[in-house]
Complement C3-like
Amino acid sequence: MRLDLQWLACLALCLAVFSTHANADARIKCPETCSPQKTGVRTLAELSKTACIKSTEFVFEVQVENAESSLHTDAYNMTILEVLKNGMDSPQGENRVFISRPSCKQKLDLKTGKTYLIMGNGNSIKKVAGRYHYLFDEQTWVQYWPTDTEGATKQFQTQYNNLEQFRNDMFYGCKSR
Ligand SMILES: *[C@@H]1O[C@H](CO)[C@@H](O)[C@H](O)[C@H]1NC(C)=O
């Protein structure tokens, strides 16, 4: 990732110095910590419940393109492969920058070229210089999305099937339940 404007905006955002607001409370603060990547099998019910609660603003299937670390932030360049729940942003097929604390690197365990399910709330979406950026925080759900090939293996089969079914269900939106 080059040190371009977008990147600088991200950095400023996470250092909480990017503020045009008179009200100090409105300043953007980078979350102190984040949830670890979800491991183990997650049921369809659990996925749907999390995706469909009102506070969940976005549900994306993403691919990690590259990552850049600095002293205070890690920035992940993600391709949004599929928007399963749309919030204020509609990034289908586009790239978005996701930001976290360097201390989250091991917990998030995101690998270049791999695909993940990411769900989060509105607080973790920040608009800076006309572009949306995403922050990993304690509410962010991150889960590995196995490849089609992995989905045929015993290790990943259930996880893969649950995610594929979840994607299909979300195509019809969140049912009132
Ligand atoms: C993000 O990845 C895409 C696809 O590889 C690339 O075209 C784009 O330049 C990258 N963006 C940044 C900021 O590195």
